[in-house]
Amino acid sequence: MNLTDRIYVAVHVALTVLVCARFQCVEHWPLYVAWNLCAVAAILLLARQRRDGTAWEFAHNWLPAFFFITVFQEVSYLSLSLRSGWNDPYVFLADGLLFNGSPAAWMHAHAATWLVQFLEFGYFAFYPLYPVVGGLFWIWRERQPFANAFRRLTDSLSIGYLVCYATYLLFPTRSPANNLGVQQFAGGQEGLFQSLVRLIQNHAGVHGNAFPSAHIMLAFVVLVFVYRFLPRLAPWLLFPILLMCVGAVYDGYHYASDVIIGALLGIVVGLTFVLRRSSHVIPAG
Question: What phi, psi does 206 have (nearest 5°)?
Answer without folding.
Answer: -125, 160
